Amino acid sequence: MIVFEDVTLSYGTKIILEGLSFQANFHEKIAILGKSGAGKTTILKLILGLQNPDSGRILIDGTDITVLKESQLRDVRMKFSIVFQEGALFDSLSVRENVAFCLREYTDLTEEEIEERVRDLLRRVGIEEAIDLMPEQLSGGMQRRVAIARSLAACEPRMFLYDEPTTGLDPITADSICALMNELSSGQPPDRKGLIVVTHKVTDAVKVAERFLYLSEGRLTFDGDIDALKNTTDDELKRFIYDIL
Amino acid sequence: MKRLRFILSSLQDFYKLSLKAPLGIFRRPFYFKDTLEQMDYAGPGSVFIIILVSLFIGMALSLQISAELAALGLKMYTGKIVGVAIIREIGPVAVALTFAGRVGSGMASEIGSMILGHQVDILRVFGVDPVKKLVTPRVISSILMLPALTIIGDAVSLIGGYYIAVFVSHQSASFYWTQIKDILDFENIFSGLTKPFLFGYTISIISCYFGLTTYGGSRGLRRSTTMAVVVSTVMIIVFDFLITKILLFVLGMRV
Ligand SMILES: Nc1ncnc2c1ncn2[C@@H]1O[C@H](COP(=O)(O)OP(=O)(O)OP(=O)(O)O)[C@@H](O)[C@H]1O
Ligand SMILES: [Mg+2]
Question: Hey, which of A7, A9, A13, A14 would you mutate to test ligand 1's pocket, going by the most ligand atoms within 8 Å of its Cβ?
Answer without folding.
Answer: A14
